[in-house]
Amino acid sequence: MEKNVVQNANDMSDGQRSPALAGTLLRGLAVMDVLLSARQPMSLGEIAGRVELDQSTTLRLLRALEGARQVLRIGDGKRYLASPKAMRPLSLRHPLEQFRRESAHLLRQLSTQLSSTVVLVVFFGGERLVLDVIQAPGSLSPYYEPWLSGPLHASGPGKSLLLSLDLETSRKLLGPEPYQAFTDQTLRTWQALSENLEAAKKVGVITVRDEFYDGLTAVAANYSDEDGNVLGCIVVTGHSAQLDAESTERVSQELSNCARLMPFQSSALRELSVFAGAELSFSSGKARKREPALAMCDGQEDI
Predict the structure, then answer these.
(1) Residue 200 backbone dihedrals phi, psi, to 5 degrees
(2) Which of 22, 63, 118, 275 could be joined to 111 by an S-S link, Cβ 3.0–4.6 Å?
(3) Cα separation of 118 and 253, whole Å?
């Protein structure tokens, strides 16, 4: 990632960039990307090599970041690491942090009950953020970057995001057909994908079997606040061989129940809804909505 940040700065024409932006901000962000991904404190030479800058420029950036309390020097003063402020920038009372804590018990119960990995995802516009990953003994150990970039048409969180949008917006977001194939099971046309999404809306759960990776299945359900604003999804992942039709049905039911309980489990959802801009338009002026949680828990049909 840090190379991309530096390359973006170098690729800008003189008319597109200012010296402050290209020479300081983007390169400083590249340094922070390196330190935040490091497994141990790094030397000046190691950092300079990773960001492809000379050591004098890198040292100036490190000094500025240290002054801003984003970087710490430790040991003999020649090793650097990201500061606590950089590693945990959000207040513990931030809606994301509160939601993560308040939902942990419910998600841990689901993970233990299904003996599967459970992933909590929050939607921000057309983007997906992994807020938590909970594993049961023996479950999959998936690797997730916090900012998901998997294909919308072939991943659990991606299809869940599409489910929260109207079909017109979803199609625009996907871009031109045919969509990229990752396996023989990947849905590559809008007709096939829209039929898949419409079927999933009737049950409130989307299943992605062998569409992104052969042998892996994801089952996902969207959760909402008490006003029906869809804020994200819960994803259960497992080996396809262990998720036959009966097992998938059980996972879908438990997952759907968990998603419906989320507004009652976390009081932070209302604040999270405001923070995530759930009431703001995505692209066509239509907010993501599902039936309010109270109505769903009173015996009305699942969406």
Answers:
(1) -70, -35
(2) 118
(3) 14
Residue 229 to residue 278: CA distance in whole angstroms: 6
3-class SS letters over the chain: CHHHHHHHHHHCCCCCCCHHHHHHHHHHHHHHHHHHHCCCCEEHHHHHHHHCCCHHHHHHHHHHHHHCCCEEEECCCCEEEECHHHHCCCCCCCHHHHHHHHHHHHHHHHHHHHCCEEEEEEEECCEEEEEEEECCCCCCCCCCCCEECCCCCCCHHHHHHHHCCCHHHHHHHHCCCCCCCCCCCCCCCHHHHHHHHHHHHHHCCEEEECCCCCCEEEEEEEEECCCCEEEEEEEEEEEHHHCCHHHHHHHHHHHHHHHHHHHHHCCCHHHHHHHCCCCCCCCCCCCCECCCHHHHCCCCCCC
Beta partners for 230? 224
Q: pLDDT tens per residue, the chain (303 residues)?
A: 444 444 444 444 334 444 544 568 999 999 999 999 999 999 999 999 999 999 999 999 999 999 999 999 998 899 999 999 999 999 999 999 999 999 999 999 999 999 999 999 999 989 999 999 999 988 887 667 899 999 999 999 999 999 999 999 999 999 999 999 999 999 999 999 999 999 999 999 999 999 999 999 999 999 999 999 999 999 999 999 999 999 999 999 999 999 999 999 999 999 999 999 887 745 333 445 554 433 333 332 222
Q: Please name every residue paired with 148 in a beta bridge, in sequence order, or none if there are none.
A: 128
Contacts by 177-180, CB closer than 8 A, 24 or more apart:
179/151, 179/153, 179/154, 180/151, 180/153, 180/154
Q: What is the pTM of this model?
A: 0.84
Q: Which domains does the chain have, with CATH numbers?
A: 2-87 (1.10.10.10), 95-296 (3.30.450.40)
Taking the C-alpha atoms of residue 76 and residue 69, their distance in angstroms, rounded to an integer, is 18
